[in-house]
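Example 3.2
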Amino acid sequence: MRTPKIALAALFALASSGPALAKKNDGEGVPVYVKVLDLEGEPVSTAVIRHPDEADRHRVNALTGEWFASVLYLPDGSEMIFTPGMTIQFEVSAPGYMTQIIQYDIRKRKNRLEVSLPLLPIEEEEEIEEPLIQFGRDRPRDVGGAGPAN
């Protein structure tokens, strides 16, 4: 008779305990993913992403063109933690591409951005001349008359 009472008590204890829910720490932010592509849809491996208030530039993954973060560290030592409802601004640039400035409202989940960078319009037909730099100590060589120095 003891076994059914113990089994019933164990069943009641398991049923009354709720599921283990993962609690988000207060210091964690919402991850934001940015994928940088060219106009053909290929990843731009040399792209960098920067927040206007931040000094550092963040490089994207060279294979996928992606970057993600949930917090940024500002030059004054403070942290900018991404929270839902917050609006952030990023500057996305790469060599040979036009820089894009994007503004995004952070949601609770699925914060995935795709940024397309157009190529810079560079005319390759025109030849670039190198500038002539004059220094004050440069003087033309005197070709005049005396013989070798003694």
